[in-house]
Amino acid sequence: MKKVSFAEFGGPDVLRLIDSEEPHAGPGRIRIAVRAAGVNPVDWRVREGQVLNAHPTELPAGVGLDASGVVDEVGEGVEGIEVGDHVFGEGSSTYAEFAVLSAWARMPEGLTFEEAAGYPSVTETALRVIREVGVRPGQTLLVSGASGGVGSAVLQVARDRGITVIGTAGVANQDYLRGLGALATTYGEGWVERVRELGRVDAALDLAGSGVIRELVDLTGDPHKVLTIADLAAPELGVRFSGVAGSVPDALAEAADLIARGKLHIPVEKSYTLAEAAAAHTDSQAGHTRGRRVVLV
């Protein structure tokens, strides 16, 4: 089968499309014929060799955590899923023609494989950070870097829970944020004052790692009310870094419910082929994403 792999840590140029042996579903796992794989920042952070305890890497290594596709092997002990089912979920080495998933859910009706591949990690992350930052219905959450996949999910989950969201993003994404129910403003000079004009901030999330931790602490008045998934230096300022996933099966089940109820939709900004994986990583690292990027198989 075809698979994207890298034999050394480095930039996007270390990615290679290779021929590889097919993986197989062990106990408690399923294998899918991959139709699409989600592109996440963790993919290129692992490729660069950044220290990520949750994702230990032995070289050569495959790429990708998220995927959608058609079940073609069911491991021992797995119940409630059959060969031929359409699923989306999380596993390993998903930039490939076949991949083994450790967590999955059936795709909601009407969702395409391309769309479905963009949901697993971002919705798990969104649900986790909303829970960990402790924001409650009736309060206001500030989201820095709100237009990407995780931000798009946070905005919609928060709205469904009765939480007001202030989102920062580039000029081109202001209408996008407003369409997701957020109070939107641009980052850049004067952004803190613009946020203050929009209202009190009870909690804040840093999703972009753009060096705004001090300002978020100032806006909330308490480092314990700020959480980041992107700034590894944040703990030096007393701010928590959230990098370890919670229950992915539970998150996928909640995501499927939100999608089915029309409460969650994350658009696919751009799709790539397996041979274009390096370009997908380059674009992901550049930021300014609206929604999700996926690799089609």
TrEMBL record:
<keyword id="KW-0694">RNA-binding</keyword>
<keyword id="KW-0963">Cytoplasm</keyword>
<keyword id="KW-0521">NADP</keyword>
<dbReference type="InterPro" id="IPR002364">
    <property type="entry name" value="Quin_OxRdtase/zeta-crystal_CS"/>
</dbReference>
<dbReference type="InterPro" id="IPR020843">
    <property type="entry name" value="ER"/>
</dbReference>
<comment type="subunit">
    <text>Homotetramer.</text>
</comment>
<dbReference type="Pfam" id="PF08240">
    <property type="entry name" value="ADH_N"/>
</dbReference>
<feature type="domain" description="Enoyl reductase (ER)">
    <location>
        <begin position="10"/>
        <end position="295"/>
    </location>
</feature>
<dbReference type="InterPro" id="IPR036291">
    <property type="entry name" value="NAD(P)-bd_dom_sf"/>
</dbReference>
<dbReference type="InterPro" id="IPR051603">
    <property type="entry name" value="Zinc-ADH_QOR/CCCR"/>
</dbReference>
<dbReference type="InterPro" id="IPR013154">
    <property type="entry name" value="ADH-like_N"/>
</dbReference>
<protein>
    <submittedName>
        <fullName>NADP-dependent oxidoreductase</fullName>
    </submittedName>
</protein>
<dbReference type="Pfam" id="PF13602">
    <property type="entry name" value="ADH_zinc_N_2"/>
</dbReference>
<dbReference type="InterPro" id="IPR011032">
    <property type="entry name" value="GroES-like_sf"/>
</dbReference>
